[in-house]
Amino acid sequence: xxxxxxxxxxxxxxxxxxxxxxxxxxxxxxxxxxxxxxxxxxxxxxxxxxxxxxxxxxxxxxxxxxxxxxxxxxxxxxxxxxxxxxxxxxxxxxxxxxxxxxxxxxxxxxxxxxxxxxxxxxxxxxxxxxxxxxxxxxxxxxxxxxxxxxxxxxxxxxxxxxxxxxxxxxxxxxxxxxxxxxxxxxxxxxxxxxxxxxxxxxxxxxxxxxxxxxxxxxxxxxxxxxxxxxxxxxxxxxxxxxxxxxxxxxxxxxxxxxxxxxxxxxxxxxxxxxxxxxxxxxxxxxxxxxxxxxxxxxxxxxxxxxxxxxxxxxxxxxxxxxxxxxxxxxxxxxxxxxxxxxxxxxxxxxxxxxxxxxxxxxxxxxxxxxxxxxxxxxxxxxxxxxxxxxxxxxxxxxxxxxxxxxxxxxxxxxxxxxxxxxxxxxxxxxxxxxxxxxxxxxxxxxxxxxxxxxxxxxxxxxxxxxxxxxxxxxxxxxxxxxxxxxxxxxxxxxxxxxxxxxxxxxxxxxxxxxxxxxxxxxxxxxxxxxxxxxxxxxxxxxxxxxxxxxxxxxxxxxxxxxxxxxxxxxxxxxxxxxxxxxxxxxxxxxxxxxxxxxxxxxxxxxxxxxxxxxxxxxxxxxxxxxxxxxxxxxxxxxxxxxxxxxxxxxxxxxxxxxxxxxxxx
Length: 665
Hints:
Layout: H1 3-24, E1 51-52, E2 57-58, E3 62-63, E4 74-81, E5 89-95, E6 106-112, E7 120-123, H2 133-137, E8 145-153, E9 159-169, E10 177-189, E11 194-200, E12 204-214, E13 225-233, E14 242-248, E15 259-260, E16 267-274, E17 280-287, E18 294-304, E19 309-317, E20 339-343, E21 346-353, E22 360-366, E23 377-378, E24 387-395, E25 398-405, E26 418-424, E27 435-436, E28 465-468, E29 472-479, E30 487-488, E31 493-494, E32 498-501, E33 504-505, E34 509-514, E35 517-521, E36 525-534, E37 540-549, E38 559-564, E39 569-577, E40 586-595, E41 598-609, E42 613-614, E43 617-618, H3 623-664
Parallel strand pairs: 35-41
Antiparallel strand pairs: 1-2, 2-33, 3-32, 4-5, 5-6, 6-7, 8-9, 9-10, 10-11, 12-13, 13-14, 14-15, 16-17, 17-18, 18-19, 20-21, 21-22, 22-23, 24-25, 25-26, 26-27, 28-29, 29-32, 29-33, 30-31, 34-36, 36-39, 37-38, 37-40, 40-41, 42-43
């Protein structure tokens, strides 16, 4: 037989054997006949960054108000994040835009719907010259100044804006009077987009230093609004000036008559928070109610039953060493207020203290409902300089702190001030290294208040603010970097003091699955690729666990520990090895990844379809066994076919030769 014929027979034989193999080889998870893939993996996105650190990824410094004339002060900053939409932020500050010089400051109202990148800017209705229907209807229309702005959201997108309103009479710098100090709470609805109304707080005189919190627990007192402030009880003869507490159970329409918290009236400069059980905590500095002298401890009063019943009052910091005003190296007023916050793991109190000679930032915490408190932990990681005006926010198990910090100033001076940030992932037991938030240091001593009281004193406010979402923290501070862009000759002072913020991306990771849906025949196997990706700054161990709903889908591995490197990714296969007894239904596989307080998940849809049926029973097809059983027969058939073809070719060729001989005779 010639070579071409041999090659043809060889190809026929190989083709026949390959056809048999293709028909009987076992299925794999990648075969379209067994699994149908949906397009593309899911992915968690993160905001862009500019500065990476172990504490977080610091974004661009953003001035939130702009440069419109008269371009004056924004100070005593406050900020809140909408729990229904983490892209919505609302901020506030004392805003001096009403006049080009001197009084009067008013509550500025700033709102962002893109995570703090851009901001709208307005004033709380009722300001002097506000002729709008809202302005005329507001009880604030009877005052010409507001101060001490503080913000808080409820769970339904309502925003509460607290402060004090009063009247200033002033003819020239260094002179004038103030009167009629009253506390109020304004309300905005629709995620802070729409002004609603203002409620004045009755039963108190000479209101000062308010702080606000809202019950967001989902419990019996959910939505209650709680306000603590300093003042006199107007309905009690010879009352003393101390911290008062009031609450609203009807969405801020009306507030209860205030009472002293603590009841002995020795508290001032309050903070307020609500724990996950609905208990309210009011922190205060202790002052003698008669003489006003500091008693050198900080206390926390616990109030239960929807803000109606004082349960206890505990000395949380004893002794406390309040910072002097001004701080060494500075000339601006330094009257600071401890801030308090709570989550499911405890209650946290942050404060500045000069126990080491200079001002440092400390945190103490309680895990037993405020009965006992830990020894104060210093948060700032550099001792040199002054560290003051701390602010706190909690989200998803992360404790975020920010403060003013003069570590880069020359020793003994405070001409270069910055904002620093640190966080804790272990409920306040330890904190990350401090990270600088400001990209430009500024001089805190060059902007005078230019408004009563103390209008000739340099002023940085009495506090700054911070808000937090699961992915970002947003400190908000008064910043003097551009202050001399506007100069007030009457007060001989730079006055362009801007409210700045920056998004700090909290270290995080992403989890994705590919494919996100698939169909498997009963008795066959499927697989999905699980990928963990380090978002900027994250590294560490991640525990991945998987389960199905309904239960019964075999998953391997059900749990796995993955070490994720800085800036890297790790993948593994999750397999679904069904058996003949696996339910034929659609399963939802939840794949959860957890590292400390951070947790993310992704889902995979797995549909198990019936296999081949005979007589109503499921008969699994063992193709590898069939292949082994029929391979000898297949080889015999192949050999027989080959032999027959060769014989046919030989007979055909012999017949041709005989015919040729016959014709030649």
